[in-house]
Amino acid sequence: MSGYDVFSVRGLYTSLGDGWTYLNAHSCPQIPERVSSAVARSFRLSTAVSPVEKGGSHAQQRAAGTPEGDGFAHQARVAVADLVGATADSVVLGPSMAVLYSQLARAMRPMWRRGSSVVLSGLDGPEFTAPFAEGPASEIRWAVPDLGTGQLPGFQFRDLVDGSTRLVSFSATQGEIGSVADIEQITEDVRSRSRAWVLVDASSLAPSRPLDIHDLNVDILGVDLAQLGGPQVSALVFRDPLMFNRLGDVVPGIDLRASSVVSAGLAGGVAPTIDHLAALTDSTGTRRQQLVQSMTALSGYMRSLRDDLYLYLDSLESVHIVGVTGEAAAGAGKDRLPRLSFAVNGVPAETVQRRLVDNGLVTALAPASSLMEEMGVADIGGAVTVGLGPFNTTHDVNQLIRAVASLA
């Protein structure tokens, strides 16, 4: 497997030539040229008629005379399946994670019984929790975050899950703090106590790590393709397509797979998004094999960049990294994404961000969420969130440190 060449990767993003240093991959990922071109082409060709019958190992058989766009959704499902190590018939596409979670909650209604319980995460927003919290379950149980570290402690699931539990749902990461949940341990604890399905949103993990739904041992994996620099399309991937047999209709006569419809033009950009990730290194083999090689190399590079980001920012005495700095965060786990939120003592977050913009750095203000408020971020004047992408370099990190140090 070839090493990771960040400068070759940067050439895949034409937007990087505008003079800005983008450090906001968590909120506004840059779109690869391959993807933007593919989406434009897909919209143009979605209504064009294929002159010949199409088929093949990765293509859905289509009769001559049918629009090209009819095959884009199938191609997208195959690509997402390759991304997470599943099969195309286990992938459900939708316009957003919020829509997919809402439809899944309706489809799961036949699984609830009197006394059924659901375990949800206090780290997740209402778009992930409301569909299940407002459903027919008799009891909603909440896994709560550690307010010192912003992490989701896994040990609490041993007490929250029992034989009545039908679903355990949580996100793999905390978006602005970057903490990563111990998915494998949580899932193991759930399996030992119930037959509940485990639903995990892995959208934040997918841009920087290889994913395998079977290694993670989850039942349903969510991926938002937009967070990969792709189109506004999301997917739910089921561990086994036989799981669909336990689901009911979303609305009478329409099941989960039929109810999730996405634009053909956007669906046509999904496979090129996955192909882009597979081509970050000179990998070989099937697309799945290329993805594993490419994302493994990317993961190592991003870990190194992440360590530099945390090390250099934490060395500035007046900088507070949310969930890392201070005694309350002494037990913070080491597994984090290449992103963080920080504040400069005595300097409002808006002022920090303006200084960064003046230095050509694009970041984002941390949202005023209940978690951030409970962690005291509002009391210190807010925080700025930095998210690194596959095109960022050590020079970008150094540029950030110099700009922040001028304020500190």
TrEMBL record:
Record domain Aminotransferase class V: where: 24-400
Span list, region Disordered: 51-70
SUPFAM superfamilies: PLP-dependent transferases
Matching InterPro entries: Aminotrans_V_dom, PyrdxlP-dep_Trfase, PyrdxlP-dep_Trfase_major, PyrdxlP-dep_Trfase_small
Pfam family name, one: Aminotran_5
Transmembrane residue ranges: none
Gene3D superfamilies attached to this UniProt entry: Aspartate Aminotransferase, domain 1, Type I PLP-dependent aspartate aminotransferase-like (Major domain)
Name the UniProt record assigns to this protein: Cysteine desulfurase
Lineage start: Bacteria, Bacillati, Actinomycetota, Actinomycetes, Mycobacteriales
